[in-house]
Amino acid sequence: MGFTIRDLDPAGGAGALDVNAWQWRPTLEIIESLGFGDETRAILMHYSGVSVEFDRDEARAIARAIRERYLPRMGADTRLTAEGGFTDEPDRVGFHRDDLALNYSATRPWLERFCEFCERCQGFAVN
Questions:
Q1: pTM, to two decimals
Q2: Cα–Cα distance measured from residue 63 to residue 109, given in angstroms and rounded to the nearest whole number
Q3: Rounded to 5 degrees, what are φ and ψ at 15?
């Protein structure tokens, strides 16, 4: 299962990003921690195929928070876990049935790409 994040302005130049659920969940934790919107929007962002929108100012604030609070604490191989922690342990790419949270982590390259998108878009929708 994956998600598509698209610029609200098709002519805006940011285009669209595709992300898998494994990397999206920790990214959601960042967005939710910023307190944007109501509880309904926070819940809907977890489901593929449901559109949730963020305006330009919210997108910029998300990018700023990631750049200021998360990226400085991450090395090239560091991953952000679903609980908001950090790990440098290599991803074993296996499915963890005993601890499902171990399946979710966002890489530094993904977070950088998401920041760049948020800085260029005119707001975005998550589908």
A1: 0.84
A2: 14
A3: 70, -130
3-class state of residue 122 by DSSP:
coil
Using DSSP's 3-state secondary structure scheme, residue 50 falls into: coil
CB 83 within 8 A of CB 35: no
Kindly report the backbone phi and psi dihedral angles of residue 5, in degrees, each rounded to the nearest multiple of 5, phi listed first: -110, 120
Partner residues linked to 55 by β-bridges: 123
Question: Token pair for residue 124?
Answer: 């975005």
Rounded Cα–Cα distance for residues 15 and 109 (Å)? 18
Residues linked to residue 10 through DSSP beta bridges, in sequence order: none
Average pLDDT of each block of 10 consecutive residues along the chain (127 residues)? 87 86 83 79 73 92 94 85 70 52 73 95 92
Q: In this structure, are residues 59 and 121 in contact, taking their beta carbons and an 8 Å threshold? A: yes
